[in-house]
Prior knowledge:
The chain is an alpha/beta fold.
Amino acid sequence: MNFGIIGGGMIARFHAEAIRRVEGSTLQAVYARRLESADTITSEFGGRAFDDLDAFLADPDLDIVTIATPSGAHLEPAVAAARAGKHVICEKPIEVTTDRVDEMIDACDRAGVVLAGVFNRRFHPTMQLLKRAVDAGRFGRLTLCEASVRWYRDDAYYASAPWRGTWALDGGGALMNQSIHAIDQLLYLAGPVKHVHAFSGTLGHRGIEVEDTAVATLEFESGALGTIRGSTACWSATGNPAEITICGTQGTVYLDDERFRRWQFADPDEHMDAQAARFTGETAAGAGANDPKAINCDGHVANFSDVVESIRDNRRPIVDGREARRAVDLICRIYEVAGTKS
């Protein structure tokens, strides 16, 4: 597959590295509003640089477009790519409101192209193993399911680009930008949410429109209860790992980033428990907790590879547009209940 990237910032470089590592794939082109930004990426990873979106999309050899623009600027390039017959992979959040996500889904459906979201943490072996344990019923009845992201971003982070910390282009703060991966993981494991109560505030930063701290309590459709805690105002010397906790009447698992801090079940499963033991232990530092660049692109490689395989096999990708919409929907519900935007 031949890939193109829309966007020329930090995350576009992660996309370029991931594309380089996807078997049989090539970076065909990069579009950015500033040609020098696209040039910087293509000079390292190959492909042709564009500052004209129509010319970029007119390439008949371009198969898949990845979108790495600010969060609230995903809709327009996604629709343009779909109309040009290109498959679309969109960085998280797929968009900042469910209405805008629905427009993207509709455009891709009408064009007969794939729309996929980027939730790279889903593809790590620990998440897949935890999902298998849930689906196998090892937890018994789910009782308490939680996501906690206690990260830190300094004022310079929000000042580094004019779109950061704005409703229009960031779509929200600690939940929509930083905690969305953990929220997606929680929904993936525990299922849909029926009721939400929430509080939010801007407690550690000045000059931003969005929340830097939020807490929500949840009732899942299964009857399980849960919480979401997200913040970019939790200073730590090493960075706190993102935590997922799944508890039930027959088991408890604590997942810190990509390591199990606890894996305990009433009924043993020798094969599954031996696999979990390979990933059990303390996490020294949170991936991306203090520095958004302090992540690897392994998950992006797996995420992109799944999309390529889904196109070849004529199946839905694991994280298609509708699946990527679920986390945006829950976050928007939290914002509404908390009165975050008022």
